From TrEMBL:
Biased composition (Low complexity): 562-591
InterPro entries membership: Hid-1/Ecm30 (IPR026705)
Highest taxon in the source lineage: Eukaryota
Pfam families xref list: Hid1
GO cellular component, one term: Golgi trans cisterna
Organism: Caenorhabditis latens
Region described as Disordered: spans on this chain: 544-591
Protein known as: HID1 domain-containing protein
Amino acid sequence: MGAQGSRVDFKQAVLDLTSKPGKDDEQFWDQAWWPDSVNDIFAMIPGEDIRKLRDESPKNLATLVYKAVEKIQFSRNHPGNIDQKKTINAIRLLTRMIPYMLEDAEWRGYFWSPIPHGDATKPLAAVLLETLSDLLFCPEFTITHANGQKVNDLSTIDSCEYIWEAGVGSGNKPPMVAQHYQNRSEILKLLLTCFSEVIYAPVSDENRLRWICHFTAVTNPHVLPIFTSLLNIVCAYDPVRYGLPYNYLLYNDSREPLVEIALQVLIVCLDKESQPKSDDSGYQDNYFINYLSRIHREEDFDFMLKGITRLLSNPIHSSSSYLPNSTKRVNFHQELLVLLWKCCEFNQKFMFYVLKTSDVLDILVPILYHISDARNDSARVGLIHMGVFIILLLSGERNFGVRLNKPYTAKANINVQAFTGTHADLLILVFHKLITTGNYRLQSLFDCFLTIMVNVSPYMKSLSMVAANKLVHLVEAFSTPWFLFSSPTNPQLVFSLLEVFNNVIQYQFDGNSNLIYTIIRKRNVFYQLSNLSTDAASIAKTLSGRKNKSANRDEMVDQLKSPTTATPPEFPAAGAGPGTASPAAGPSTTAGLAATPALATMTGNVGSWEEKPTAPEVPEEWIATQEWAEAWKSKLPLQTIMRLLQVLVPQVEKICIDKGLTDESEILKFLQHGTLVGLLPVPHPIVIRRYQTNVGTNHWFRIYMWGVIYLRNTQPPIWYDTDVKLFEIQRA
């Protein structure tokens, strides 16, 4: 029967069900036209029909939803003889209808109005959530009973004994049953649909997380086994299995769709308002967060970290495999980054565990791969923000900087210039590439990139020549007069970079002859910065030369591609030059975390997720003044570098003249054995800038998470064509 025929039948059946009191409801669920696939149900019931029902026959819609909930309840109350097809159809029907109800404020309230329940009353939402929670641990529907007996009362089941996968809180490895996986996925999809009230309700609505609050409350008797089931099913998943090439093509992996929806439900349930109404920590009411924050066994941390690392690394291994497409590729790395973030945010012991071992590098490399891979894709700007925030969080701890000194052997296909060096070199090269060739929307992250570099710089033992060149090139790019004068926040970038150099010179001089050599070779960059003219006439001249070109990004890129600082002739050029890159953007405000996006947009067909960064506003008429320029210029921390140049340049020049040197290796050898002890200013204290959570970033993570979930759910397209408020959707 075609979708059109089914559509007519469905409308008639709804009419029959809702308008003829006392008619046998079973007839509705027995109809022959119920399709086998959820996509067919979505096609059979177009959105316009649901809206019509909602607006023209609200009573009928209310009855239909109530009957569907009743059907699911009946299955919960009679687990011994569940009609699986009817139960799944009722679940799918609600998944189809609920987004159109959540669009409307009155209907959002409808779910929370009390209905008769036993001897008392309860909101319909509460009844639905409790019923679905029970069904997640229903023998022969979603779990396998230990002794295979028929169960007629679900209250006799201790769900803690039926956690879906071994791992945190459970050593049992339950049997794998594809049908159970499928039924769990259907229930989880409906739960996720209920939780999506947050994407329709206004930001000011205090109730927008109420479905999540109710589900994750201590009053849900299954809250612990559901939390651990979701966490374990994700962290235990190995998409490659036995490592046989192409083996994933031989069988249908029924587990992956479950892992994907489990991960989405898990991260959504780890959402809370940043200002909790009661308890100080805000973890009191949300038991998903409460349990996550209390995990403490090393073997649990190991299981979680290995699982997240395995899945985050999956695209790397599948893309660098010697046989193309020979290993299964999973696509939920954005959700994994959110999970990793939440694990670190809510459980500090977990974060310290990650930093304690060199496993932190196994997490870092895939993150660098993902953000590098996304750099020119405007649809994945959010992914880059997410990855950079995680690195920023980790960089606030000394151990992270120390671990970066481990030599890097290229496993991942990360698109940076070839180098021999450490993970610190890799970090610098990826950030340099993002700053100089990335999407212009990354401007708001420049400050973040540099903060991370500052945080790790006191521990960088020996930078490669390639990375040293990139660092000096960033100073060159960010210290052009036009760039410095074109925005009130641009000078801050130069301050951060100078702090990186000062930290290395003061704390890691001995192993860093490559960087010292590059500073000497490119000393004019620093001399020009030190001699920058800040009088009103010079500022006006700099800006007037570009008055009508400030919007022209290419102009600035070209200017930065041909650095104005010539290499002094007496030193041979070392390693790779600074390349042709530049901050690929015009004047901007770089406000790091303050500039997290407040709005998101979607582009493309059903869209690709984008965000509009809202940096702190710079008044349109802002113009650089002599007073402003002199104020920051007088504070530039150039003393250490100038002293270094003052001491070393004459020595190096003398060697070149005496020995007629043209070979850089001799100069490097001299610098390796040189010392500046007692010649430099007193070392400054190391300052680490830690990430501070705030309402703005909390809101940004919520937008990012739901934007990803919206786009990833296309089979069926749960929220497509509904009136989403949390972000904008642009269609191609």
